């Protein structure tokens, strides 16, 4: 089975617990994320959206189904190999606790290269920071940056290895609307200018509207797919889905 | 880069670890320097003699006994042979006896022995004024005593005070009298004018009792090569003695100095061992703590592609830097402190006066390496745990310790516990000095076991302790219980140093009190005495002092079986009342065929020492001496009533002991008892340690005799004062060092804990807790942890003390009660509590972020 998708999930199942306490987090999810696509994954709390992201990124093992990233099947990989795959092919951005407090913005950005024992090129680091509009803040420590700026440093860091896919888990969850807008614009620009594949988990319709496509999860299943919608329509579709469910 | 940056970021929380490591390295530097420096020093009195010969020493250097001296005939023959060696310009046999200058009726401390004048050349001493001592009653004194030629002085000898006239002063320290033999070379010469013999045999009244010869010193010609002479001399001496040159001449230091050095060695080794152990422990708990606090950060790094090996490398790299930094501070501090500490050890009595610090470069290097090693060992398990942190940890709050006790930890804790029990059981069978060490090792293992298993024990203990308060409506008890239970490992890290502190202070304090209690008990019950006379400014009591005190006493001496010493004591018939005969009869004990004269029958003593104890059928060598032996000694040596055993006397002359009685156990002055007059005849320098009197002794009768009366109660209480004083200083030192380290750790852990919980506290404030309630909660939680740590520490100490008491009981057949030092316990727990609560609440008090609900992220 061949596919051009950067990330491909096929019939992925994931349950937690045993016996009567079994919770089905993902009940057979299939999805494809093609190169240069910007996808938002939405759903109520407990719908399985974070689990989807963690499984897709190889952070969590699946019970059944298949996940391939950039043509590599995660199932056959050891923990060490998955670590290397994460380092080289996957970028991450999270709600908070994204940066290492002891390192400057530039050092945080260069971290994945250092972890891979590749000498970070100063120009590349500056360029990555410039792409998120933070070139002049390179020498600042996280504590000296605003929440939005920290999040943009995290994006710059995710880009430094030129990953196949960028996973973002509630990247605007802890930010005010102004900062959110800047962060979302930065993500959008990556997709448009560099054909970066982005998968973003969010519960915010405004954030989801920045994506090309919205996947809606409920009880571990894909229940809806919305393309090219604005926040109001997304919110309405979500509300309808919630009623239907 | 990451290790360095992380160190900078967390410098405040790592300050405690850094201080710990620096102090540990300083302690190791000091102990190392002093241990390396603690080597015997050639006495000044032999400094001018490049080659010295002494008899073969006992095989056990910790016996602290002079080697069996050469009998005078053997010494004379050996001296003659040595004098004939090419390059040797003079061979000087050394004669000496106990003598102390009396000044205003008080013994002058320092010099305890008078030497034959001919031996002054071995130290390169010359007369500064007057003439050399020659006749009986002549004495030459060191200039430092300030007595001019012609002065009339009294010397306290083993017999008692004797009048002397100062004939000359010498450019050195010492007491010299006329020679027992005319000339320094050749066979036994005239005994006329034999001052040493005259003085030493004043009581015995017979010639030839000048004791054996302990040393023969050689002077060599200006053109002779000392090394070549030493080789030639070694051939001449053969098996009769040991040739000493260069630094090896330090072996001739006084036995007392060797013993003092040995005690110092024990103190320094214990300090170094304790310092190392406590440092490893503190580094381990600090880093375990830090690793837990950095859970999310480590998860983030894993998420970004760090492999576990890299994470482990950072933690170890960080601790390596910390160890090097600690060494960079600790080594210079230790080098600076070594001199003053050495001076203090000399003043305290842990090192002889001749002790000086040798600054060997290997010591700081080794201390630095040890510091780094300590840090790495301490952080090893934390590094392993850090490497196991998964990438998902970055996405989770880790408020609940998933598995409070890992299987490895449980296993290690169980192994330590089993080890502690094994060592504790071994302790009950260990002998004397080893007993304390075993108890200490058992406690160390228990401390490790307790700390490893604390996460398991702590929540249960806190639940138990807080159960009486659980019914209340307040939130504090609930929160304390829940916090300790859910963050079991964090609480365990905080409780561990308290456990360590309480365990060691209570153990060390209790150990000393238990043993002291035993010895006190032993002394009081052993002798039904009204008064006790002890030496005052002298190494022992002279016969005159013993006569003045008028009680029971024993005269200790040393017999030799080959080169091996056999402690023995001379007793009078009066002593029989306190002896219990198991077998045989004491009637013949004082019927010595030696009479008043210990003159041997053999003209030429054997060149090789008399062989091991015979079966009793071998023909007796030397005069036959009846002895009574202790049951224990008889059993271990295989001696029985009627047995005859050829040995050497304290003067090196052969005698044959005939066992006439075996005595029951209990406190005996020595394993072998013989007639007091026989001891005096053989050992003119023997001194009595203590006299037990059945009536009060007025201090006046002992005036000018170097003795002091004590009531029996005072004696039992004070014990052997000098030894006890040393033991107490030793104890205080060990407690101080271990408690100091542990308190450092308590403060450090609490500071880290509160700083790391800023978020938690903020949530509490947001939930409506007042500032006072938050501080109260912190204080209550800290108190609960300290109380639990203290309870576990007490349990450890009590277990180790029980093993010690059991060991003492088994060893001596008397039930020894275990003493728990409640005062020390209360003080330790109090200090821990105050410091811990202060360290836990102060950061919250000072930091708005922690105590104010309005603080944002």
From TrEMBL, chain A:
Keywords annotated in UniProt: ATP-binding, Nucleotide-binding, Transport
GO molecular function, one term: ATP hydrolysis activity
Domain of life per record: Bacteria
SMART domains reported in the protein's UniProt record: AAA
One cellular component term from this protein's GO annotations in UniProt: plasma membrane
Record bears the keyword ATP-binding: yes
Matches recorded under Pfam families: ABC_tran (PF00005)
InterPro entries associated with the record: AAA+_ATPase (IPR003593), ABC_transporter-like_ATP-bd (IPR003439), ABC_transporter-like_CS (IPR017871), ABC_transpr_LolD-like (IPR015854), MacB-like_ATP-bd (IPR017911), P-loop_NTPase (IPR027417)
ABC transporter domain residues: 7-244
Family annotation (PANTHER family): ABC TRANSPORTER RELATED, IMPORT ATP-BINDING PROTEIN
Protein name stated in the entry: ABC transporter ATP-binding protein
UniProtKB/TrEMBL annotation, chain B:
Membrane topology field: Multi-pass membrane protein
Positions with biased composition (Low complexity): 602-616
A GO molecular-function descriptor: transmembrane transporter activity
GO cellular component: plasma membrane
Subcellular location: Cell membrane
Disordered: annotated segments: 590-618
InterPro entries: ABC3_permease_C (IPR003838), Macrolide_Exporter_MacB (IPR050250)
Keywords associated with the record: Cell membrane, Membrane, Transmembrane, Transmembrane helix
Domain ABC3 transporter permease C-terminal: residue ranges: 271-390, 734-849
TM helices/strands, residue ranges: 267-290, 311-338, 358-380, 410-432, 438-458, 491-512, 726-753, 774-805, 825-845
Domain of life of the organism encoding this protein: Bacteria
Stated name of the protein: ABC3 transporter permease C-terminal domain-containing protein
The organism of origin for this protein: Catellatospora coxensis
Lineage of the species this protein comes from: Bacteria, Bacillati, Actinomycetota, Actinomycetes, Micromonosporales
């Amino acid at each position: 089975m061949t596919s051009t998708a950067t990330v491909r999930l096929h019939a992925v199942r994931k349950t937690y617990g045993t016996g009567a306490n079994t919770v089905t987090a993902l009940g057979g999810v299939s999805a494809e994320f093609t190169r240069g696509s910007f996808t938002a994954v939405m759903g109520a709390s407990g719908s399985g959206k974070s689990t989807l992201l963690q499984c897709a990124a190889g952070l969590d093992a699946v019970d059944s189904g298949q996940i391939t990233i950039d043509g590599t099947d995660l199932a056959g990989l050891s923990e060490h190999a998955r670590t290397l795959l994460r380092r080289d092919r996957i970028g991450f951005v999270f709600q908070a606790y994204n940066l290492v407090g002891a390192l400057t913005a530039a050092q945080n950005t260069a971290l994945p290269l250092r972890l891979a024992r590749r000498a970070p090129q100063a120009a590349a680091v500056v360029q990555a920071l410039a792409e998120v509009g933070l070139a002049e803040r390179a020498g600042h420590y996280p504590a000296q940056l605003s929440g939005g700026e920290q999040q943009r440093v995290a994006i710059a860091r995710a880009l430094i290895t030129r990953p196949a896919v960028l996973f973002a888990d509630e990247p605007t969850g802890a930010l005010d609307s102004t900062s959110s807008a800047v962060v979302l614009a930065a993500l959008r620009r990556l997709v448009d200018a560099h054909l970066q594949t982005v998968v973003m988990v969010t519960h915010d319709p405004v954030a989801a509207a920045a994506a090309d496509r919205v996947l809606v999860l409920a009880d571990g299943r894909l229940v809806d797919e919305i393309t090219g919608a604005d926040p109001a329509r997304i919110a309405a579709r979500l509300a309808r889905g919630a009623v239907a469910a | 880069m990451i290790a360095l940056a992380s160190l900078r970021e967390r410098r405040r929380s790592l300050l405690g670890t850094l201080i710990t490591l620096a102090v540990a390295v300083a302690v190791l530097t000091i102990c190392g320097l002093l241990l390396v420096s603690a080597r015997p020093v050639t006495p000044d009195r032999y400094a001018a003699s490049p080659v010295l010969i002494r008899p073969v020493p006992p095989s056990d250097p910790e016996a602290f006994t002079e080697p069996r001296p050469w009998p005078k005939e053997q010494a004379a023959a050996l001296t003659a042979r040595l004098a004939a060696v090419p390059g040797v310009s003079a061979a000087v046999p050394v004669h000496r006896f106990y003598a102390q200058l009396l000044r205003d009726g008080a013994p002058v401390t320092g010099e305890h022995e008078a030497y034959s004048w001919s031996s002054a050349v071995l130290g390169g001493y010359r007369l500064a004024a007057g003439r050399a001592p020659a006749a009986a009653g002549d004495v030459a004194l060191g200039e430092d005593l300030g007595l001019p030629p012609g002065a009339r002085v009294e010397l306290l000898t083993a017999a008692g005070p004797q009048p002397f006239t100062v004939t000359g002063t010498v450019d050195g320290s010492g007491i010299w009298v006329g020679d027992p033999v005319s000339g320094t070379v050749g066979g036994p010469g005239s005994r006329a004018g034999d001052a040493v013999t005259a003085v030493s045999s004043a009581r015995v009244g017979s010639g030839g009792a000048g004791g054996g010869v302990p040393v023969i010193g050689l002077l060599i010609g200006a053109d002779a090569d000392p090394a070549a002479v030493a080789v030639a001399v070694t051939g001449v001496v053969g098996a009769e003695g040991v040739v000493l040159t260069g630094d090896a001449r330090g072996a001739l230091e006084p036995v007392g100095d060797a013993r003092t050095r040995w005690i110092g060695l024990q103190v320094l080794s214990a300090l170094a061992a304790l310092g190392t152990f406590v440092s490893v422990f503190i580094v381990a708990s600090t880093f375990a703590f830090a690793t837990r606090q950095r859970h999310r950060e480590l998860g983030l790094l894993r998420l970004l592609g760090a492999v576990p090996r890299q994470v482990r490398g950072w933690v170890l790299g960080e601790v390596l830097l910390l160890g090097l930094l600690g060494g960079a501070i600790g080594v210079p501090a230790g080098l600076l402190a070594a001199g003053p500490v050495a001076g203090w050890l000399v003043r305290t009595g842990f090192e002889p006066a001749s002790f000086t610090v040798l600054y060997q470069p290997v010591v700081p290097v080794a201390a630095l390496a040890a510091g780094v090693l300590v840090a790495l060992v301490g952080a090893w398990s934390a590094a392993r745990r850090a490497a196991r942190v998964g990438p998902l940890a970055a996405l989770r709050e880790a408020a609940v310790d998933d598995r409070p006790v890992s299987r490895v930890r449980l296993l290690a804790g169980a192994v330590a516990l089993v080890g502690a029990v094994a060592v504790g059981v071994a302790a009950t069978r260990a002998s004397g000095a080893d007993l304390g060490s075993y108890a200490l090792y058992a406690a160390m293992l228990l401390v490790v076991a307790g700390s490893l298993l604390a996460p398991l024990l702590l929540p249960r203990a806190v639940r138990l302790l807080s159960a009486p308060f659980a019914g209340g409506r307040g939130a504090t008890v609930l929160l304390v219980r829940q916090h300790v239970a859910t963050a079991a490992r964090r609480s365990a890290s905080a409780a561990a140093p308290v456990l360590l502190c309480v365990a060691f202070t209570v153990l060390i304090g209790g150990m000393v009190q238990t043993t002291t209690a035993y010895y006190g008990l032993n002394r009081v019950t052993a002798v039904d005495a009204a008064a006790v006379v002890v030496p005052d400014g002298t190494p022992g009591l002279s016969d005159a002092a013993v006569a003045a005190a008028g009680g029971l006493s024993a005269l200790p001496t040393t017999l030799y079986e080959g080169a091996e010493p056999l402690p023995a004591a001379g007793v009078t018939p009066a002593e029989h009342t306190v002896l219990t005969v198991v077998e045989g009869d004491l009637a013949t004990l004082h019927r010595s065929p030696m009479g008043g004269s210990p003159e041997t029958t053999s003209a030429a003593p054997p060149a090789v020492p008399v062989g091991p104890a015979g079966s009793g059928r071998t023909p007796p060598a030397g005069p036959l001496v009846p002895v009574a032996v202790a049951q224990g000694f008889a059993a271990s040596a295989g001696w029985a009533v009627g047995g005859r055993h050829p040995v050497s006397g304290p003067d090196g002359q052969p005698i044959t002991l005939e066992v006439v009685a075996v005595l029951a156990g209990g406190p005996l002055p020595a394993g072998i008892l013989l007639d007091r007059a026989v001891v005096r005849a053989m050992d003119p320098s023997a001194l009595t340690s203590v006299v037990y009197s059945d009536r009060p002794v007025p201090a006046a009768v002992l005036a000018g005799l170097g003795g002091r009366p004590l009531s029996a109660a005072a004696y039992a209480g004070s014990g052997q004062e000098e030894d006890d004083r040393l033991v107490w200083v030793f104890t205080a030192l060990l407690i101080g060092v271990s408690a100091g380290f542990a308190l450092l750790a308590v403060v450090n852990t609490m500071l880290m804990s509160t700083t790391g919980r800023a978020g938690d506290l903020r949530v509490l404030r947001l939930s409506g807790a007042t500032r006072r309630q938050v501080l109260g909660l912190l204080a209550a939680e800290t108190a609960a942890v300290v109380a639990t740590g203290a309870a576990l520490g007490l349990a450890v100490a009590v277990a180790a003390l029980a093993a010690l008491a059991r060991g003492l009981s088994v060893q001596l057949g008397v039930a020894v009660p275990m003493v728990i030092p409640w005062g020390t316990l209360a003080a330790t727990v109090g200090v821990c509590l105050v410091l811990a609560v202060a360290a836990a609440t102060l950061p919250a008090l000072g930091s708005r972020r922690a105590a104010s609900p309005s603080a944002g992220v």
